[in-house]
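I have a small job for you when you get a moment. Would you make up a two-line entry for one protein for me to read? No commentary is needed, just the two lines. Write everything out right here, beneath this request.
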Amino acid sequence: QVQLVESGGGLVQAGGSLRLSCAASGRTFSRNAMSWFRQAPGKEREFVAAIRWSGGSTYYTDSVKGRFTISRDNARNTMYLQMNSLKPEDTAVYYCAAILRLADYSNHKLYDYWGQGTQVTVSS
């Protein structure tokens, strides 16, 4: 089992920044990658970014490239999402997730573990 706990959400004005954290515990050595997803009211869960735990390769959805940065701290077993130049359309609940195998990281249905989510609200 892997436990994931997100933090760092909040309310920010458009153009501002937030940093989300996801602390992992449990059988963390078994994960292949960790990712951030988001879900706005009435919408499907959307892939935001992923990072392979071994090697650190990163992947982003087009709408956040150049604004968001995913990173990890192996010693702290924590993943981060630095979000800059935030837009109202970034408003959503953000979830971190872990996947145990190499797969299509953008497909939320393939993930094995999820955090409880943290709300990000960007005002215009």
About this structure: DSSP finds no helices and eleven strands in the chain.
